[in-house]
Design goal:
Two copies of one chain form a homodimer. Chain A has 465 residues and is α+β, with helices and mostly antiparallel strands. Helix content of chain A is 43%, strand content 17%. In chain A, the strands form three sheets. Chain A has an eight-stranded mixed β-sheet with strand order 1-5-6-11-10-9-7-8. The first copy, chain A, has a five-stranded mixed β-sheet with strand order 13-12-14-15-16.
């Protein structure tokens, strides 16, 4: 028998990790609910046809497809169809419903759009939903990149109000404040400003090319971007105009004022400036002064190849070396993919695998999470076992997490277990204790031991927290 | 574009359903943690080799297999291997790692065993874990049977103490008590008693046949079972002896006493009786008198075709017509499948899809779960919008779940939304309210409306809960 293993790029979450993840997810859940967002869960499997063509050619290759069951039971024409389609699948990227009808969820956005379209008559719009579930991608696994990973999204569909953008900024700030994450910056821009930038640089038709090149600014620097812009057909004049625009500095209002002057000839650029001003004004009326993260207009923020059409945001922390820990934006026609037109949406995503790593590196998880069981009762067997058992349920009823070592094993073995489990207290119920109708309560950190009645034990544990 | 849909046998969980499911899962989580059980999560995908051969021939057919990616990029020998294996897959049940290396989790028990074996050096034994995750089976979907459904298991491995069995009985009782589920019965038996029954009926070698036949007693009645026993080669004498044994009645102790007399010639049968007595005695020392479910010895309880070797349990409620809502037992060598011998385990499972249906049918979900947002602020636009926004964050900081209707839509439209969302209060911030620096708070259930300061609004909402 070979040693068991798990698939490359997947992880088991041990109890300690699950507790830390639950802390993070519950914190986010609490904030989402406070802001009126509602939980949604969709199946791990979607019909393959729901997913294909939504993530670009590269994305399609990374979808995990599920083999139909019972293929060996097929007869005649169906069997021939399967044999024929199989040959096509060996030739080129090709999906045959006769072979794979279903696939694993690739993100949370497409299933959300699919859900909204299927349930459009039952839902109350604007529909605010949050969703925290795993997704699967057949990417090459590497440090920080998994084949099974979690996404955590909050979206509003059915409202064009910029109050939604402002509320989502508040959700980011409230969440990172609650996690005590330092040095958080939320960059904000608008795809309309990028369209304006393309327009005033004389390359209106090349807006996506400019966006894709600008998206690499952090990674390859301005010289790299300039080279890519040139390759993508932007003139030298255009490139220098783009450089001038993305070099605008100052406070948010100073940047917007400067851009307003530069973009005076671009209707869409001016609209983008107006939307950013409104979003920031709404945000100003909702911001909590205790939040210490900052919102910064950044005209070079691009958010890559995707479906955004309005305000876009991206979150980073300078406290550790890590890419973005969140991002999002407005998309005008997501549900249009499934036939429901004219429903505008805006959403943000928390990169919870990365946020986990940041909280871990900065030791920001509450220490209490690592204490699973407060009290372990030592088991000496026989009549002492019966005496020990008498303490178990009263402790639990008093709100103390308690367990008894189930076997009358050697004292050392039981202590080793308590140590490995990071248990706070050990309750000893031996002959002497039983004779005195008391229990010895040993603090596992300090080593201090006291002979106490059960009530005194409970009071002591509760007072120590 | 065809209408979007989800795969047969899968479900979207709408916000209301997610809330009810979370209530149930959090309640169970709280109890598991109280008893010292620790959370574990394993990946949705396992290596196919981990799963095959563990669930019987029928089970193997129901495993969802994931197609390897990049098949069309294979060349030469690898490609020929895939073509060859594909032909085999069309002929018979056959798994080729060249085509499918991975599969979806089929239950939580095998991944748990796999995890324990992989992490045996880091874990503290006895290891108590709970796990609540979806599993996937390519079963024919029907009412109450899904292709994606959730399991919820609690197991202890590395201890043979019957205290574990007693604690798991307490967990069942505490959980169903907390859910207020009435008329719950936990049937208890031992595989050793079934072995004893086979022995004293003169059919020791046919113990599994007898178990499989007895398992159908509820469905096909004694006559059906007798017929099946005959088909499985049990003599008429044997059948009448089995009938006599399973007809034993009385209190738990009366039944055990009667069985002790009947099984005096079967060492294993007597051992089963002894273990049941000890389990019940331990349970007696831990039981909470408030729990109203009952524990009943039932010698006909069999728990079908599986790996149990000791005490077995099954939970039903007579309050609704529904099969078992939980079950479990002791298994002596689960991790042996993966090369780690001699680790005894015992576990129980909660059938949470069925429990959900029962709670729903009996209307036992707390009413508060259906109120997601307590207050919606009406949006009249312009200066009134700015005035409305001033109320939003103070409400949330006071612990009130609040949202503003993001667009200055028609009043009726906003009221319709609040109604559909089951929102408790509506806060009206119009010209009059703004002039008075107050807000009109409308109770959406009673229709009652009051002009109040923001502080008074918060006090009123908090006092109404």
């Amino acid at each position: 028998m070979s040693k068991p293993s798990i698939p490359q790029g997947t992880r088991d979450f041990s109890p300690e990790v699950v507790r830390k993840r639950q802390y993070m997810l519950n914190l986010l859940k609490g904030i989402f609910e406070q802001y009126g967002f509602q939980p949604l869960e969709t199946p791990a499997m979607e019909n393959l046809v729901t997913l294909t063509g939504k993530y670009g050619e590269e994305g399609d290759k990374l979808i995990f497809k599920i083999l139909n069951n019972g293929l060996h039971e097929l007869k005649d024409a169906k069997r021939e169809k399967v044999a024929e389609d199989w040959n096509k699948m060996l030739e080129k990227p090709f999906s045959s419903p006769a072979i794979t009808e279903r696939a694993l969820r690739y993100d949370l956005t497409i299933p959300f759009a699919r859900f909204v379209v299927m349930n459009q008559n039952e839902l109350a719009f604007p529909f605010r939903r949050y969703q925290m579930q795993p997704v699967w991608r057949a990417d090459r696994p590497q440090r920080g990149r998994y084949r099974e990973f979690w996404q955590c999204d909050a979206d509003v569909v059915g409202s064009t109000s910029l109050i939604n953008e402002a509320e989502l900024l508040c959700i980011y700030q409230a969440a990172f404040h609650a996690m005590k994450l330092p040095q958080v910056t939320i960059k904000i821009n608008s795809r309309k400003l990028l369209a304006g930038l393309a327009e005033v640089s004389g390359n209106a038709a090349l807006m996506m090319d400019i966006t894709i090149a600008l998206d690499k600014l952090d990674k390859i620097g301005w010289d790299g971007v300039a080279k890519e812009l040139e390759q993508r057909g932007i003139s030298a004049d255009g490139i220098s105009s783009i450089r001038e625009i993305i070099s605008v500095t100052g406070t948010n209002e100073e940047q917007l004022a400067a851009l307003e002057a530069i973009m005076s000839g671009s209707a869409i650029g001016l609209q983008g400036i107006e939307e950013l001003r409104k979003t920031l004004a709404y945000h100003q009326s909702l911001v909590n002064t205790a939040w210490d993260s900052t919102i910064e207009v950044d005209i070079s923020l691009a958010r890559g190849l995707n479906y955004y059409t309005g305000v876009i945001v991206e979150v980073t922390t300078s406290a550790v070396s890590m890419g973005s820990i969140g991002g999002g934006g407005r998309y005008d026609d997501l549900t249009g993919l499934f036939g429901l037109k004219g429903l505008s949406g805006v959403g943000v995503s928390f990169g919870i695998d990365r946020i986990y790593d940041v909280l871990e590196e900065l030791q920001l998880f509450p220490a209490a999470l690592s204490v699973a069981t407060q009290v372990m009762i030592v088991n000496f067997g026989g009549e002492n076992e019966a005496y020990a058992l008498r303490a178990l349920q009263p402790l639990r009823q008093a709100g103390v997490t308690a367990e008894i070592y189930p076997d009358a094993a050697k004292f050392d073995k039981q202590m080793k277990y308590a140590n490995k489990r990071n248990i706070s207290y050990v309750l000893i119920a031996g002959d002497d204790e039983r004779a005195a109708n008391k229990y010895s309560l040993k603090n596992f950190t300090t080593g201090e031991q006291q002979l106490l009645s059960l009530e005194e034990c409970m009071a002591h544990i509760s007072s120590q927290g």
